[in-house]
Each structure stands twice: as C-alpha cells, then as structure tokens.
What does this fold into?
Amino acid sequence: MNLYFYFVKKKIFYFQRLIVCLEESIYMFNMRDNVKLLHTIRDVPSNPDGLCALSSNDINPYLAYPGSSITGEIQIFDTSNLVSIRYNLRFKLFIL
It folds into this structure.
C-alpha cells in the first residue's frame, strides 16, 4: 500500500495519462506501461484543495496548477514532453 494514497486531493485520467495531485506534489503516470511513473513535480506550493486542470486537447495536453499559495499565479506543464512551460499567469481578485 502506498503511503500517499491517503493524501490524494485530485485524480485526472485522460487518454493514457493519470495525473495525481497531492497537497505539495503532482505525479504523472502512463497507463499503457502498467501504471509507470513518468514524472513528479515536487515544487508545488501548498494546494490543500488539489486544484489542477488538464486540457482536453490530446495534441497539447497541458496541466495547470497553482504557482503560489498567496497570489493568483498558475504554472503550466506540458504532459506530453514532460517540461514546464516558463510562462506564469498572474491574476488579481477584485472585490467590489
């Protein structure tokens, strides 16, 4: 039994990929190769709600996840080439 089983915040299954979001890391598995671990993102800021999203485009399957637990920043990761996209989007929330 894996220890991180109890801390899984969100799972995304898309085509042959399984994305598992934990509070402070993200794991990517390939389902074709007997659930082989492809990549781990460890530098994820605290994400207690497991916020992440995978694009529905199989040509460019990008994963978006929080880049900061303080500001509205997201990180984009290319799950096909297993590289981080070095473009940060920042948002500000205005309360009227």
User: Anything to note?
Assistant: The beta strands are 10-14, 17-21, 26-30, 36-41, 53-54, 62-66, 72-78, 83-91. The chain has one domain: 7-91.
